Amino acid sequence: MSVILYCYGTSPYSKKTETVLLLKNIRHEKVIVANMLPRSEITDLLGIVYRQIPLLAIGNDIYCDTSLIASILERRFPASQGYGTIFPNKKGGGADTGLIKVFDKHYVDVVLFPLGLNLVPFDKIPPAFVADRATPDTSAKKLVVRCPPTWSISWPVKRDSTDHKQSLVEEQLSDGREWLFDTELPSLADASVHFVSLWIKGLPSTESLFDVSKFPQFMEWLSRMTAYIERLKAEQPPVLNVTGEDAAARIVAASFEPYNVVGFDECEATRLGLKAGDKVSVGADEIGKDFRTTGTLVALNREEFVIEVQGSAGLVRCHFPRILFNAAPVS
C-alpha cells in the first residue's frame, strides 16, 4: 500500500508530518507542489479544493489536516504490526493519547503556531505570496489577508507573548524529563512543539527567544529532539519524489479502506442535517473557509467526514477532520 505526501519544502506542517512518518518508520514518497495556488496536482487531478498543505494519500484514501493525518497513521500503521508509535507509554506506564491529541490541536495549532505567524516579516515577503494567503472580500472588492489580529501589535509585545508560552514548555520539562509527556519515546507532542520551534527559530530576529540561560531545559530538549530526528533520517532509506501525474494514477487505481472502518454515525449525521449519499461541500471553519471540496458523503464518525470526489484522474476518497471543519449539503 503506497503512502504519498503532498508537500513543499518550506511548509512547517509538512515538516511535522514528515517527523511523524519518521517516528512511525513508514516508508513513503513525496509529490512536491508549489507554495501558492494553483496546484493542479491536487485540484485538477484529484478534484480536491482544500488549499492547505500537506495532504497524505494512503492507497485511494486522501487525508487533509495534520491532526487527522497523525491520528490515522497511528491507526492504519499500528505498533502491533512493527511500526513506531506517536503515543508511547509514559515511563510510569499508560499512554496519554487523548491528552496529547488535545495538546497538539488546541495548544500547538491554536496557540503556538499563530505566535510564530506574528513574527513573520510579511513586509519582506513577495506580494504574490501574501495575496495567495488572502480572502476575497466581495463587499469591499479587495483582498483581506487571513491573519490573527495580533499582527498589528508591536514587536516587544509579540516577543513577550511567545516568550511566555515558551516558559510553559520550560516548566513542563523542569523535573528533568526526557520528553514532554514523560514518555518512553518522543510522542506527537514532541513532534508538534519541535516543528513550531524550529520554524520560529529560523525567522529573523528571534535569537532572544532561544536563550539557553532563560530556557535551559527547553533548549536541551530541542537539541535532543533534533538529534533524535536526524538519527532516524540516517537510519531510514531516502524518500523518493514522484510526479503529480504518476501519484494520481496510482491513487485512483489503489484500493481504499472499507467503508465500515470509519462507519456512518446516523445520530451524528441527523444532528448535522446530513445523510449517507448526500452531495456536500466540506471546508475549514476559519482559515481556508472559502476553499471547499464537494463530493458524496460516504462515511462519518466523531473524528472525520469522508467524501468521494471526482478528479480528472478518477475517483478518490477524501477525509477531513470534524474538529474545526464543517460539511454542508449542496443542492
From TrEMBL:
Pfam family, one: DUF7962
SUPFAM superfamilies linked to this entry: GST C-terminal domain-like, Thioredoxin-like
UniProt xrefs under InterPro entries: DUF7962 (IPR058268), Glutathione-S-Trfase_C_sf (IPR036282), Glutathione_S-Trfase_N (IPR004045), Thioredoxin-like_sf (IPR036249)
Start and end residues of each GST N-terminal domain: 1-81
Taxonomy, superkingdom: Eukaryota
Coiled coil: none
Name this polypeptide is given: GST N-terminal domain-containing protein
Species assigned in the record: Mycena metata
Lineage, opening ranks: Eukaryota, Fungi, Dikarya, Basidiomycota, Agaricomycotina
